[in-house]
Amino acid sequence: MPSRKTITRRVFIASAVLAGTALALLPQGAKTAIKIDLFKTLEAVQEVLFPRGLAAPSAIEFGATAYLANVSTHSSFLASDLRFLKHGAQELMNEYNNFLTLNPQEQDETLREFVNEHEVGENWVSFVLYFTIEALLSDPIYGGNKNESGWRWLNHKAGLPQPKVPYAQNLKGEVI
Amino acid sequence: MTYDVCIVGTGAGASGVAHKLVEAGMNVVMLERGGFYKEEDFSKDEIAYCKREIVTPSFEDAYHTIESLRNGKWTKKSTRDTESTYFNGNIVGGSSNFMSGYFHRMKPKDFKLKSTYGPIEGANVIDWVSDYNEFEPYFEEVERLVGVSGEITHFKYHEPRSTKNFPYPALDEHPISTKIDDACKKLGYVPYKTPRAILSKAKGERSDCYYSNYCGSYGCSSGAKGSSRASLLQPMLKKKNFNIITHAFVKKLIEQKGKVVEALYVDTKTKEEKNVQAKLFIVAGQAVESSRLLLNSKSKTFPNGLANNTGQVGKNLLFSGGGIGSGQFDENSMALKELMKEGLFVNRSLCDWYFYEEDGKEVKGGIVDFLFEHANPMTKATKQRFENGKVLWGKELQDKIYHKLNKTKQLNFEIFNDWLPTDNCFVSVDEKYKDAYGVPVANIRTGAHERDVEVGRFLAKKAENVLKEMGAKDINSSISSAPPPNLQAGGCRFGDDPKTSVLNKYCQAHEVGNLFVTDGSFMPTGGSVTYTWTIYANSFRVGDYIVQNQKVWL
């Protein structure tokens, strides 16, 4: 840790909104209107948030959604975080049920509207971005940063030794 | 079997004393809440160590309740809801595995703040019942055994030393350190070369530092960092009179006829309850958890918790005053190739205002450490997703991330000044809040004295002056009374009077003759430094005392 630890376990919300936790942002008794496929929705949103650039790999290319599908099943992934991911995706699809059929530019405009007009919009998008960037720069053993595409784009040298197993387990994959 | 000594915890405070007792031939067992990671188990996995904090208990297992002042009222919040943790590395070696190892000694005046500077209203400042002279040989022993590297910088408040130099030469430095030196010279400040608990040369089984660029927050893969695990515990593992039981969460110490006879613990893997008998018990689970254990160890003789019949356990908890600040550097301040060099240390501090003059009178100040923002790419990149408080994405975000990681470097400073002990900072327990094992969790009231922030701001100005002189951009600092959860001390003060202290001069409980507390809990004030060096030194000191007097207990 830095000699002074100031960063708490989770920092994902605009510092201006010190709501603290995803849990606090969940409205009581949120109603579900249409049935959505969480990871399909996330895949579309992440590709808008992180499109292919001149050198940058796109979210699909570096495996942003595959990463989330993987890490969200581990016990260290907070249940409240997963609920908030689902909640925002549901709200987005409730408001814009044709979102998946729009072209990239329309999707981008829709997301900007969602951020400006929906109460969870900005927090949810920044939250999805948080995990998108985790996928971009985490060790490939977690399912993102495919072929080290994130690291290569950013000329990043991985710290050594790199993990051989995820979640600081031993080499047999057991919790130490 | 009955051990000679049972030690709760395996961090710096537990291991100094363990080293002394095992060397003296006593039969010692240590109980550690977490597992045993060795050099080969560590990696630079930002997800595991920095994001998911795998080496701290999960919120389902354990948490704290934190009381802070909101609109004039003490308001309690569970860390399960705030998702912040006051655990700092629950594996063999404790938080010393994850420290950065900025090692500054306390100064002679730190041991007698009250008699030197007089009382401060609203603060419970007292003199220590020990002094610098008694600690000096132990500071020196830490330099050799744990390993401190560096080069002595002479400045007006330098503490006396019994040896001329540090036993290990200074680590390699980043070119920016010269820029700090130049700026300091122009400003008339002394650029103080920061000693580090990191080996620049191999020692026994421990290799020298390999400049991995990922040091603080990570376990060390070469053994260079002076964790208690690498420096003291691993070298003793082959001894027959030494044993570490891992995954052992101690729920309670059992007292009979005024003595501790047993530690009751739960095996966190099997959930089985087990116990250990010993003649002497030593508690060192980091300040908050040590007070919690005593408060939860109630008995007929000690209805308010072990060694707590005068109600002092948990009181006068300390964190560290101060805060952080930063400035940005790019190709305008330094050739990019030089600036972006990785792995090298900054190792510069400002100590000129450890004491300073205010209104014609000397007052207690503190120190500033300079360091680069940690290399963690995810942490750096995720911070880029806001611009003027608005979320950013697409090409704008990508350009910003690329620029941040390839074209700039952030030099941080950290301020350390005394966290004055007050009645509003303490540990208590409440039957209403229990962990997964049915044990009341620690409640931490985190009130700070207003003076802490004043001193912090004074020091931040000096650090900002250096950054300005260096040509940094976007200089800012954030000084607050928010407690840094990893810098804990106090809660079981040592002193001569059993009415106002829990421990005597040798960290033995006044009320329980075969109980010692050897982490940072004993400190009535902590100095304006990170606590690890003092904790190690004191642990060695208490170890010598126990060895010399072992007949009393064995």
TrEMBL record, chain A:
The keyword Transmembrane helix does not apply. InterPro entries: Gluconate_2DH_su3, TAT_signal. PROSITE patterns: TAT. It comes from the Bacteria. Keywords: Signal. Residues 1-24 form the signal peptide. This is Gluconate 2-dehydrogenase subunit 3 family protein. It comes from uncultured Sulfurovum sp.
From TrEMBL, chain B:
PANTHER family: PYRANOSE 2-OXIDASE (PTHR42784:SF1). This is Glucose-methanol-choline (GMC) oxidoreductase:NAD binding site. Belongs to the GMC oxidoreductase family. Pfam families: GMC_oxred_C, GMC_oxred_N. GO terms for molecular function: flavin adenine dinucleotide binding; oxidoreductase activity, acting on CH-OH group of donors. Residues 421-537 form the Glucose-methanol-choline oxidoreductase C-terminal domain. The keyword Oxidoreductase applies. Residues 80-317 form the Glucose-methanol-choline oxidoreductase N-terminal domain. Keywords: FAD, Flavoprotein, Oxidoreductase. InterPro entries: FAD/NAD-bd_sf, GMC_OxRdtase_N, GMC_OxRtase_C, P2Ox-like. It comes from uncultured Sulfurovum sp. The keyword Flavoprotein applies. Its cofactor is FAD.
